[in-house]
Predict the 3D structure of the following.
Amino acid sequence: MVKIEFLGPIGKAPVEMDAATLADVAKKLQEDGTLKEWLPKCAVALNDTMVSDLSTPLKEGDRISILPPVCGG
């Protein structure tokens, strides 16, 4: 199991799922209609390290953070 947390204004509770790669996570998250508008804009961190390769392998206990874009002023 891996844990997926959604940061900032996404406003969704963390979820856990079985996944072998980030591509598996992306596929499952795209099935959630409330996330469709967010996912294309978000960055992804795996155990606090930014990643962009969906073929990245996952292991038991990994934490994936979905980070929406932010702006400051």
User: Anything to note?
Assistant: The longest strand covers residues 2-6. The radius of gyration is 12 Å.
